[in-house]
Each structure stands twice: as structure tokens, then as C-alpha cells.
Design brief:
- By secondary structure, the chain is α/β, with parallel strands linked by helices.
- Helix content is about 30%, strand content about 25%.
- The protein has a domain of about 180 residues: Dihydrodipicolinate Reductase, domain 2.
- The strands form 4 sheets. The chain has a 9-stranded mixed sheet. A 6-stranded parallel sheet has the order 7-6-5-8-9-10, with helices on both faces.
- Strand 9, helix 4 and strand 10 form a beta-alpha-beta unit.
- Helix 3 runs parallel beside helix 4.
- The protein is globular.
- The termini are far apart.
- Bound molecules: nicotinamide-adenine-dinucleotide.
- The site of nicotinamide-adenine-dinucleotide has 21 residues, from helix 1 and helix 6.
Length: about 425
């Protein structure tokens, strides 16, 4: 009996699946494990008689999506920072990517780096820590660095990556200050390398579909966007500990998750705000909010007259909701910015409809978009200038809250 047989039938529960670099799945015959269970008749010897309808293979079904590139042609990515988001979301997503492959890791913890390297097939010569990071310049396998560090370290590692001749994909928020964002953009230009901010929602299929429907006028002229992003900040979670420290996080809930509400208002209206108004409130005497803010309620006014009523919170139960209201209908994404399982409902002249949207990894999509942008020398959809615009607006919201009055934004300054 072969490795894959049980009572003369194929034992699917014991089928071997291996994950290789870049996440390709290798199975059975590709491992050279071609035994009688895979062969067409003959050589069965004293094996028990097999059932009549045996799997024989069939032609490749019509491909629904582009085939992945051969591993040798994909761009090599180094993930910088092996924290919660990198380990749980990003590293597994390389398996779904078509033009990006994981080739290097940067971590302050060698043991963790080695364990992760062995799981994802990363060569141990391609492991770096924060001191040896600059040696990445000598590694031709690495084309792109993906910065997944606390916000205050984004600028430093972006600039060091550019100096090493690499392209940079940086987590949100792009950096802590406007000046840092400008330095990052300048460093990219000087090195002639590309910079993209990881705004995954702009690659998430339900959000993409919502934007398409708004642009096509399904809900009529858009007059109002509302969006709320909230969760409980947990001081026991190491990933939340630096988020309570202003010098590492840059800000509180607004910087961390309010940026999703802000992004939604910008990508749904397709406009840049001309005025903001913000109000901040903290749970009284709560040690979590000694340095960073808890809740922010903020409003934006756009040139068309559209307004957005937005919020972020670190002290309310989880919410990730986006709503757009037009003259002819409305559209609800609830949840709208989960890692998966988002939902889009549209209310229009045709009635109320939950839109079926095919799930697709937003992480693989954004990484592949950047790899393609580099390969084809195109500007990415969410370049450094997009991250800078958000940081500029977030800073204006803080100023408005501090001064207790609306702050006017100079839209022409956005991309300078
Ligand atoms: P995390 O704390 O789990 O990961 C941060 C990593 O940086 C850790 O491995 C930590 O060891 C390392 N690190 C290096 N120097 C450090 C220092 N001086 N202080 C603290 N940690 C240091 O945090 P996370 O939740 O993975 O967030 C990392 C980044 O990813 C943040 O910028 C965050 O905004 C972003 N993020 C994005 C999403 C998204 O959906 N796009 C989701 C979560 C986090």
C-alpha cells in the first residue's frame, strides 16, 4: 500500500502539502512521490483491488486569474520587524502573491528569525538584525523592504533602505510627522527608488467595489460619508504597549485606526478635504491615555460641499464601519476594514442588496501591485505623497482639537 492509500482508496487526510519559498504548494507527484496510487494501471502487484472510478486527473480548468510568475522572476521582499501583524497577516500572505516572494527577514530576536525562516523557507544567510540591517545593500536577492515597525521607526528604516538601494513598502501611518514623510519621499527620489504606503483597504475587494459603484453614480452625487473605527487598547498585549507611548506611536487611536476612517472619506469622495474639525476625549484617569489620545470625533469638509463625520476610539468595542450617502441611495461597508469577511450592502433605486464580492487577499494584492509598479517602472497607487497627505490632515485634526476651532487645509500643499 502506498503512502497515500488507506483500504485501497486515496487517503486525502494524509496527502502531503509542503509550503516552499513564495508559498507555492507542492503536492504528491511534484515531490517525486509517484506511486501506484497515481499510476494508470499496471504494477499493482499484490495490492488490494482498487475502486473502479479512480481519480485520473483532468485538464487545467479555465484560469480565473493570472498565473503566478515563476519564482525566479518575482521580486524579493525583506520583511523588517516580526511582530503581530507581520507574523499573523503578512508572512502567510506571500503564499497568495503572484509577483512577490519572501527572501529575507529583519528582527532583533535571532531565535525567532530562525524559526520563522525555517517555516517560510528563507535562507539563514538572509537574516538581519537592526544593527546589521545596512548590509542588506550587498544582498541582490532583496529588491523591496517592507517596514512593519512601530510608527516612529518607519522614517529611519525607509531612509536606510533607500541608502541600501532598495524599494520601500511602508506600513501606515507613513510616519509620525510631516517632516519625516517629506524626508522619506526625498530620500526615495534621490535614490531613484519607489515608495508605497501599505493602504490595504484600497486593495480590499469590497472597498474597491464600493468605490467603483460610487464613481459610476449608483447612489447619486455623494454628500455624506461616515466611518467609525474603534477597539479596546489592551496594555497586556505587547503590540499595544508601544501604542501607549507617544514617542513610538506618534498619536493614539487617530493615528492607528482613525486613519482608516480618514482614508475611507478620501477614497469614496475622491476629494481632498479643505477644512477639518476635531474633538478629543479620554477615559478619565486611565493610565493607557497618559500620553496618547483615546477617542477622536472629527469632521471633514470637501470642495464639492460633501462632508464626512468620522471617529476613532481605543475604549469602545470593535467597530470597522464605513457608510456613504448619496442623493439616490447609500452604501454600507460593515465591517469594512477587517482582514477578511467584509460586507458591502447597497441601497439604491433598485432596492437593498448585499453585494457578493469574491474574497481575495488584500495583502497579496497590495504587495503584488507594488512589485508590478517596480517591474514596470510605474507610480504605485498609494505612493509616499498619499501617506504625507494623511499625516498632514491628522496633524490638522489635532491642532483643531487643541484650539477648539476648525482648521483650514491648503490642498495645494498636499503633494509638495
Ligand atoms: P508589534 O509590536 O506586534 O510589532 C512591531 C515589531 O517591531 C516587533 O517585532 C518589535 O519587536 C519590533 N521593534 C523593533 N524595535 C522596536 C522598538 N524600539 N519598540 C517596540 N518594538 C520594536 O506591532 P504591530 O501591531 O505588528 O504593528 C507594526 C506596524 O504595522 C505599525 O506601524 C502598525 O500601524 C502597522 N499595522 C498595520 C496593520 C494594517 O492592517 N495595515 C495592522 C496592524 C499593524
Amino acid at each position: 500500500m502506498t503512502l497515500f492509500e488507506k483500504d485501497g482508496r486515496l487517503d486525502l487526510s494524509r496527502r502531503l502539502f509542503l509550503r516552499g519559498t513564495g508559498g507555492g504548494l507542492l503536492m504528491g507527484s511534484s515531490l517525486g512521490l509517484v506511486g501506484p496510487a497515481f499510476a494508470q494501471g499496471g504494477g499493482a502487484g499484490n495490492l488490494p483491488e482498487l475502486p473502479r472510478s479512480r481519480p485520473t486527473g483532468r485538464p487545467i480548468p479555465e484560469m480565473e486569474q493570472e498565473m503566478p510568475m515563476e519564482p525566479g522572476r518575482r521580486l524579493g521582499w525583506a520583511v523588517v520587524g516580526l511582530g503581530k501583524f507581520a507574523l499573523n497577516q503578512i508572512l502567510p500572505s506571500f503564499a497568495e502573491s503572484r509577483s512577490s516572494k519572501l527572501v529575507a527577514l529583519v528582527s532583533g530576536n535571532r531565535q525567532k528569525a530562525e524559526q520563522v525562516a525555517s517555516r517560510y523557507g528563507v535562507d539563514t544567510h538572509n537574516l538581519y538584525d537592526y544593527q546589521t540591517f545596512d548590509r542588506i545593500a550587498d544582498n541582490p536577492d532583496v529588491d523591496v523592504t517592507y517596514i512593519i515597525l512601530p510608527n516612529a521607526l518607519h522614517a529611519e528604516y525607509t531612509v536606510r533602505s533607500f541608502k541600501a538601494g532598495k524599494h520601500v513598502f511602508c506600513e501606515k501611518p507613513m510616519a509620525v510627522t510631516v517632516e519625516e514623510c517629506e524626508t522619506m519621499i526625498r530620500a526615495g527620489r534621490e535614490a531613484d527608488r519607489k515608495l508605497m504606503v501599505a493602504y490595504r483597504a484600497q486593495f480590499e475587494p469590497h472597498n474597491v467595489e464600493a468605490i467603483r459603484r460610487v464613481r459610476e453614480g449608483e447612489i447619486g452625487p455623494l454628500h455624506l460619508v461616515t466611518s467609525d473605527h474603534g477597539r479596546i487598547l489592551d496594555p497586556k498585549d505587547p503590540a499595544d504597549q508601544w501604542r501607549m507611548v507617544k514617542s513610538l506611536a506618534g498619536g493614539g487611536s487617530l493615528y492607528d485606526i482613525g486613519i482608516y476612517s480618514l482614508q475611507a472619506a478620501r477614497y469614496l469622495t475622491g476629494e481632498e478635504p479643505v477644512e477639518v474639525f476635531g474633538q478629543i476625549s479620554n477615559v478619565k484617569d486611565d493610565p493607557r491615555f497618559r500620553e496618547v489620545e483615546d477617542r477622536v470625533a472629527f469632521q471633514l469638509r470637501f470642495p464639492s460641499g460633501a462632508v464626512a463625520n468620522l471617529s476613532s476610539s481605543y475604549s469602545t468595542a470593535s467597530v470597522k464601519r464605513i457608510q456613504a450617502f448619496g442623493e439616490k441611495g447609500s452604501l454600507i461597508l460593515d465591517p469594512g476594514t477587517e482582514y477578511e469577511g467584509n460586507k458591502l450592502t447597497v441601497q439604491s433605486e433598485k432596492g437593498r442588496q448585499e453585494v457578493k464580492v469574491k474574497e481575495q487577499s488584500q495583502f497579496a494584492a497590495e504587495m503584488d501591485h507594488f512589485s508590478q509598479s517596480v517591474m514596470e517602472n510605474r507610480n504605485p497607487k498609494t505612493p509616499g505623497e498619499e501617506g504625507l497627505r494623511d499625516v498632514r490632515i491628522l496633524q490638522a485634526i489635532y491642532r483643531s482639537a487643541q484650539e477648539a476651532k476648525p482648521v483650514t487645509l491648503d490642498v495645494t500643499a498636499s503633494t509638495r
